[in-house]
Amino acid sequence: MAAFADEIKRRRTFAIISHPDAGKTTLTEKFLLYGGAINLAGTVKGRKATKHAVSDWMEIEKERGISVTSSVLQFNYEGYCINILDTPGHQDFSEDTYRTLMAADSAVMVIDGSKGVEAQTIKLFKVCVMRHIPIFTFVNKMDREARDPFELMSEIEEVLGIHTCPINWPIGCGKNFKGVYDRQTKQITTFTAAMGGQKEVASRTFDVEGADVDSIIGQDYHAQLRDDIELLDGASDEFDQELVNRGELSPVFFGSALTNFGVETFLEHFLNMTSSPLPRKTLDGQVDPFDEKFSAFVFKIQANMNKAHRDRIAFMRICSGKFEAGMEVNHVQGGKKIRLTQPQQLMAESRKIIEEAYAGDIIGVFDPGIFSIGDTLCAPGGKFQFEGIPTFAPEHFARVRQMDTMKRKQFIKGISQIAQEGAIQIFQEFNTGMEEIIVGVVGVLQFEVLTYRLENEYNVEVKLEQLPFEYIRWVENPGEVDVARIQGTSDMKRICDLKGNPLLLFINSWSVGMVEERNPGLRLAEFGRN
Ligand code: G4P
């Protein structure tokens, strides 16, 4: 029993978010290096290849050389068992990226010190805020010319609307990057670059009040640091674990993932400031992770990882208890008992079959086509459901036309199945039925994936005509308003999802506000509720 509880206590499950190129992959690799999961020596050059070996399952990923899906990595460090949920680093990320955040207990936001907060970070950050999960900031690339750290702090606060609390503070940057100052221990660690597979950084740590500081970091930098410390102590938010837990205050760290500077310090503080898996909400209560009875929810469905078998893998986050290979569970939404076979876990570079897993872990199980995003699995007899996963707003839309009208049935089957996996959303014209199909995606690459898959898996050729809409809003109170009579703008289009729920599409963002103004009583939502 103690062993069971200890297993859960030592787990930390977090997602890494960033704008492409901020250094998310590099930082993840350095984490794995500390955990001993990979030996980086000699692989830094072939990093891109390694990255692909981790998550490239679909043909299209290989063809395009980019990562379409998110992957999960597990490693051990200082007694902790860490699950990192990676999110695709390419511009064309998908709804999966958002959903991955539903499975994480906290998030690490990597920011490029020379760029600050970028578009993709903002989008992912919004989902973290919606979930009130702790967010940690790693300001990366301090070995390069970076923006003023105070300016970066205010940008994070203003753009993202979160308070920040620097845990350490940079001294210079780029060629003049001297190191970082730890605000708690009041010590300076000098910058030394560890390259390649080197784990130890031969830095020196000494007291900021020490006599030799001037000679080590230089008089000017020392004076600047004194001013900075005074300003920080006077003006910045104090560290407050409660606020961090609620996602209202982000601890900020400075470092350089590439040169392995500040990575281990970050990892240590992060592990101390985050908790083991927390209770998860159900429709009528919550489930304690330490409850011995197994429970999990599906947050991602990955199709055709092995083309020969046309299989699907359902990824689930375990919320309570222990999972054992081959165990029988109740699939609540399907109303059936099922046996979970071929459980898989991603371990650094390969998928492996696992025998057991605990609350906090992510596993992938073979899906014979029965699971949907958000489904609950629990120990036999259990009937509760975890809170649904919201539908995230697509940003690109296209009308889909089938080339061979004789294949209508296959087309509907294919597009519906692909939509069920959650990579695309399908809509119909308002009040006209299935004749015209509109697909919505979060990243445009999904259009290609859709066309490719319909052709290769369902033998249906389609043509996509992209539509100019970029904003979608769910009508929250369709019972209270007559959707057909909404006073729209010239760029507004009414559509509905397959369940008949009405939605509005807009080309311009300001039209959204205009329509809300023109139609008092109409409530529009950015996330769809399942
Ligand atoms: P991503 O996953 O967030 O997209 O970023 P990734 O780690 O792939 O890093 C993007 C680029 O930034 C890489 O260079 C990487 O080496 C570099 N980088 C990451 N962290 C640091 C850092 O702390 N300092 C500096 N100076 N560079 C950093 P690249 O040239 O695009 O790739 P590669 O040819 O080096 O593999």
TrEMBL record:
The keyword Transferase is annotated on this UniProt entry: no
CDD domains: RF3
Classification via Pfam families: EF-G_D2, GTP_EFTU, RF3_C
Domain Tr-type G span(s) in chain numbering: 9-278
Major site of localization recorded for this protein: cytoplasm
Keyword Protein biosynthesis: yes
Function: Increases the formation of ribosomal termination complexes and stimulates activities of RF-1 and RF-2. It binds guanine nucleotides and has strong preference for UGA stop codons. It may interact directly with the ribosome. The stimulation of RF-1 and RF-2 is significantly reduced by GTP and GDP, but not by GMP.
Sequence similarity: Belongs to the TRAFAC class translation factor GTPase superfamily. Classic translation factor GTPase family. PrfC subfamily.
Name the UniProt record assigns to this protein: Peptide chain release factor 3
Protein's gene: prfC
